[in-house]
Amino acid sequence: MSENNLTYQLAHQAQCLAVRKHRRRTQAKQYRTIHPLTSSHEPHYSPTQRVGLAAEKRAAQELRQAGLILLAQNLRCKAGEIDLVAIDGTTLVFIEVRQRESLHYGGAAASVNRRKQQRLIRAAQYFLPWLTWRHFSGRTPPCRFDVVSIEPNGSNWIKQAFCVS
Q: CATH number of 47-162: 3.20.20.10, 3.10.129.10, 3.40.1350.10, 3.90.1150.10?
């Protein structure tokens, strides 16, 4: 091996190590950062995010009362996000929670359009192997997609809101 090549490899390894250390430090800072106006260690959410989290919490409570067993909340991947994942009997249920302050433009349920459905399906496909392994002993259960719409006049749980096609 030439001396020039060895020098290049050592420099490359040092750069990679420095990049990894830098990423670890910046990620650690992000987790430690506290918003200056709050005294708690909870992350700072925008008003819109707080409304969404409250809607998801309300939906989760209603679904628990209806007999579902909640497994996960806010599963995120590149394909999208799944608000809630639950078990209904032997069925794995992926749940999208939508809230609207008014009934204009069709309300909350109508906002789950074809594009959003495709994102939910791709996210579910991403998490399905892990959920199957974790909660169903490796056997893929029947799955369905539900929508919980929260509107000024109450909430509505739409079972089997859409299908994988």
A: 3.40.1350.10
